[in-house]
Structures are given as C-alpha cells and as structure tokens.
Amino acid sequence: MNYTEGNPITLQGVQTQEVARTFISKVFLWMSGALILTAITSFLIAANFDTFAPYLFNVVEGGVKPSFLYWIAIFAPFILVLVMSAAVNRLSLSVLSLIYILYSLLMGVSFSFIFLAYDLGTIGITFAVTAGTFSVMAVMGFTTKTDLTKFGSILLMALFGIIIAMVVNLFMNSGPLDFIISILGVLIFTGLTAYDVQKLKRYSTQIGEFNNTAGKMALMGALTLYLDFVNLFLFLLRIFGRKN
C-alpha cells in the first residue's frame, strides 16, 4: 500500500480513477467524432448542392418545394434522439452507436443549409468562439467544487421558456425578441455545458467497471454535450452571423 500526504491509495481507488478517466474520454471521443462527422457531411453537401438539390427539393410550377427526403432529414434527428433516450436500456451498445452515427449524418444534412445562408468566414469564426467557450465551461464544470445541480434545474426551466418564446416569435417575427432569445440561448447553453460535464464527472466516479451499461451512458453523455455545443453554435451564429 502506498501513501501520499498520509492518505492511503488503494488498488480499488486507482482502478476507480482509471474507470472514471476511461468514461470521460469515451464521452468526449464520441462527441468530437459526431461533430466532425456532422461538419464534414454539411460541408460536402453544401459544396455539391447542385448534385443533392434534386433529392431535397421538387421543381413545381412557380418554384420549388421541399421533398419527402428533405422533411426526413429535418425531423428524423429529433425522432432519433427520442428513440435513443427512451430505449437506451433496451438497445444494445452497437445499435445505439449506429443510431448515434446516423443522427450525426442527418444533422449534417440539416446544417448544410447554414453554408448557403452564411459566409464561410463567419461560420469559421463562430465555430472557433463556440469551441473556446465550450472548452472553458467544460473545464470549469469538471474542476469546480460548487454543486451546479440547482443552477442546472433553473437553466432547464429557462430553456423551456425560450423554446416557447421562439414558437411565439414565429408568428410575431420580432427582430428585437429574436435577438433577446439568442442572447438568452447563449447564456443557457453556456451554463448547461458546465452543468452537464459536472453531472457526467459525478457519474463517472460511481462506476465500478466500464461495462456495457457504462458504454451506453458514455454515448448518451456524448449526445448531451453534442447538443450543448450545437445549440450554443446556432445561437451565436444568429447573433454574429452575416447572411449572404
């Protein structure tokens, strides 16, 4: 048995720390992989939009209208998130992984329209700011000793609030309200990043071994952080983006 500053370090404690590090590394590996897959897919579709456009839009008298495949690409990601969340205990890790990869690809299809609406420089700068903000808040959530549980509950309630406000603004089409929603969205997802990372860290310390269940929880944790990053990026883009 080894001692550091008078505190015994047991083999079990070392194994627990190793499992926790494995869990957290898996979370960020899955999240980073999904972001890369989404970015590559969206860029390739936008760069070759003339090739993909006939599959996404139908030419009709007086213009074009979205095709059935377009609506699948837009709404399928939401359905896949619901499926993963509701059936995480029933699905195997391999099936859950395939759904997660499919989700990342479909999000890339949806995000391809961003390259058509905003210039590449603005997207790059916004992505860099998002990555920097996300990284800082992730480190803060991982290292802080403050319990963020109460803050997380408040942020989740605020999130429901801005979702309602966004629906209302679809009818009002108010520029000032849209700007306020975007500012609040940035603040909410900045805070949620720290909260979610702390929650995942706390879970990682409770894992006895990195088994199939822990693998699925790492994947779901990655999905949570992926959504935090993507939504933070979208709200920042709404604020700073310059439309073509």
List SSEs in N-to-C order: EEHHEEHHHHHH
Mean pLDDT: 88
Strand order of the largest sheet: 1-2
Largest β sheet strand count, sense and barrel closure: 2 strands, antiparallel
Termini Cα gap: 65 Å
Pairing-aware structural class of the strands and helices? mainly alpha
The coarse silhouette is globular
The proportion of strand residues reads: 5-15%
Query: Which regions contain 5 or more consecutive residues with pLDDT less than 50?
Result: 1-12
User: How many runs of DSSP E, i.e. beta strands?
Assistant: 4
Q: Calculate Rg over CA atoms.
A: 21 Å
Give the proportion of residues in helices: over 70%
TL;DR of this structure?
This protein has 244 residues and is mainly alpha-helical. The chain has helices at residues 11-47, 49-56, 68-86, 93-117, 120-143, 149-172, 175-204, 212-240, and strands at residues 2-4, 7-9, 57-60, 63-66. It has a two-stranded antiparallel sheet. A two-stranded antiparallel ribbon has the order 3-4.
Q: If you had to describe this structure to a student in words, what would you say it looks like?
A:
It is a single chain. The radius of gyration is 21 Å and the shape is globular. The chain contains 8 helices and 4 strands. β3 and β4 (63-66) form a beta hairpin. With 244 residues, it is mainly alpha-helical. It has helices spanning 11-47, 49-56, 68-86, 93-117, 120-143, 149-172, 175-204, 212-240; strands spanning 2-4, 7-9, 57-60, 63-66. Strands 1-2 form a two-stranded antiparallel sheet. The protein has one domain.
